[in-house]
Amino acid sequence: MKSIEIKTTQNVTLEYELADLRDRVVAFLIDLVIMGVVITVFSMVGFSSFIASDMARQIFAIFLICIFLFYSLVLEIFNHGQSFGKMAMKIQVIKTVGGRATFSDYVARWVFRMIDIYFSMGGIASILVASSPKAQRIGDMVANTAVVKLTPKMDLKLEDLLNIQSKESYTPVYTEAKHLEEEDVLLIKSALSRYTRYKNQGHQEAIRLLALQIRNILGLSSTAEGDLQFLKTVLKDYVVLTR
After folding, report:
1. One domain, residues 14 and 79
2. pLDDT per residue over 84-109, tens digit each?
């Protein structure tokens, strides 16, 4: 599982799990199906209904080609780095140097898409995504972008589970933790991991805000534990109560 560390303008280091080749291929296929359906519907309606002259047909054909060519570019620009396929797979294009990708970044990715994907039948993109440290195709390297997962996997090692007592020997402190969504637990685990590695002011503030949010979700006005220990206890309670 590859990951990337990005330092924000506030000097906070964030770690993202990179989208693997399977995620990106499936997202591409979903987009291809959507484009195929849209172009087919437009073709059936346009060519058979209201377009009579040859000139109008040619213009309409150019319009359909533009849908195919500019589909990914337009969606990524106006949807913050996500096409419909990427949204379905919960992956997104981001800058590797922090901040949002710009219009020129998306254009650079789109230009080299012709080489990475179409001209090589996806061969170049597949090789580079699978082998490069940041899972980048040529377009990503030129634009300094990467495709990351928005919902990372729950990466618990065997020793983590063995260190947590069973229900018979451990009494959960916050039984409400079993009602948490998996996304909430993943966020807690990610925040604790980042705080452990980078104990700076930015991550301390992130721990404080996350603890406040989790208390609100669990319906707790206050807790005897500090923010950091509270999140650790909630994580332990969730694993014990739901396994």
Report:
1. yes
2. 999 999 999 999 987 789 999 999 99
